[in-house]
Amino acid sequence: MKYWQSLLEAKQELTHLKQETLLTIGNFDGVHLGHQEVIRQTVALAKKNKLLPLGLTFRNHPAELLGEERLLISPAKVRRRLLAAYQLAGLLEVGFDPELAELTPETFFYQWVKEGLRARGLVIGHDFRFGRHGRGNFEMLRRLCRHEKMLIKQIPPLRAAGEVISSSRIRRLLQKGEVKAGARLLGRPFFWEGRVIRGQQLARKLGYKTANLLPPDNALLPLFGVYLIRAFVADKPYFGVANLGMRPTFDFKNPLLEVHLFNLDFFFYDQIICVEFLEYIREERVFANLELLKEQIATDVAVAQKLAKEYT
User: Fold this and answer.
1) Degrees (nearest 5) of the Cα angle 132, 138, 144?
2) 17, 26 in Cβ contact below 8 A?
3) Closest Cα partner for 113 from 139, 82, 151?
4) Same domain, yes or no, for 122 and 53?
5) Same domain, 142 and 193
6) Is 172 part of a structural domain of the chain?
7) Dihedral sign (CA 193, 28, 184, 225)
């Protein structure tokens, strides 16, 4: 997948290639089942019309300009890889800044969509808005596309259990520890990627080797507690148990993910590993002494090993 970080860069390459495109636009945070359907239909319609399927997305969430914090289900690097897996041929990823936010819908359409990205068609989700104050809607977009003889298609929302599948809904589930329900809407387990750091080796004193990961920057934190996880080390999967939180028994000040993997008995500092959150086991809590903590870890491991059998 081609990747551009500015409109000028994308425009120059597309002009050089003399390539016209079919474009989809969105935040695509999480690349959940609804996003996947939008992308699949973008790729299919592009193939049918001999166009290049492209995506336009943003490094930061537009809501940040309104002072709202939106932690990401999938950080930008992960989102790029997920979008490429669904066969988008190119992705323009830009910062959503005040200048872009102030463009009128018409200016955005002509400068960015038609001229900048050489679009001959658009596929959008059910809730797509564009231009200053979100004034641009599907009806306006359809009129503009009709005037320019461009293709336009709006994808209706996907629903699960009677509710629309959305990034906001998935965030709420994860923040309640409902990672299994979140996975059903994502179409895969919620996961983090991170570099294994050196900790204070407290778990080793309790008889359990752990890999410690800091949360990715701007990443959503699921509910603190203990989880059944599956980690990929050098692309090989291992089940395990992990504690996400502040480690209150030791009075730490920053969140950390401590991962103990079954059937893996070596350290792999500085490696990047992927950790999937499969099931929530219990809340994080304080223990009066290390012996009680050690007993609880043994119970957590036993529970996780039993649950892991459902995934093999």
Assistant:
1) 80
2) no
3) 151
4) yes
5) no
6) no
7) positive
pLDDT at 65 over 80: no
Which CATH number goes with the domain that contains 284?
Answer: 2.40.30.30
**Measured between alpha carbons, how far is residue 115 from residues 17, 91, 120, 174, 277 in Å?**
14, 16, 10, 40, 43
Q: What DSSP letter does each residue of 111-136 carry, written as one string?
A: IIIIIIS-EEEEEEETT--BSGGG-B
Domain that holds residue 305: 189-311
User: Residues for the chain: how many in total?
Assistant: 312
| Whether residues 119 and 202 fall in one domain | no
197 and 100 inside one domain: no
Written as six digits, the tokens of 255 are 């969140």
Q: For residues 216 and 274, give the distance between their C-alpha atoms in angstroms, rounded to a whole number.
A: 11
Token duo for residue 15: 């002009």
Task: For residue 37, give every residue at least 6 positions away whose Cβ sits within 8 Å of its Cβ, in sequence order, or none.
Answer: 155, 158
> What is the tens place of the pLDDT at every residue in 255-288?
899 999 998 876 678 888 999 999 999 998 888 7
CA 133, distance to chain mean position in Å, is 25
Query: Domain total for the chain?
Result: 2
pLDDT of the residue at 71: 84
> Is the separation of the CB atoms in 186 and 155 below 8 Å?
no
Has residue 180 been placed in a domain?
no
Same domain, 142 and 291: no
Token pair 């990747």: residue? 3
Query: What is the rounded CA–CA span in Å between residue 174 and residue 196?
Result: 23
Phi and psi at residue 207, to the nearest 5°? 95, 15
Same domain, yes or no: 140 and 197: no
CA distance 109 to 50: 22
Q: Rounded to an integer, what distance in angstroms lies between the CA atom of residue 206 and that of residue 287?
A: 13
Q: What is the pLDDT of residues 194-208, one digit of tens each?
A: 889 876 655 555 667
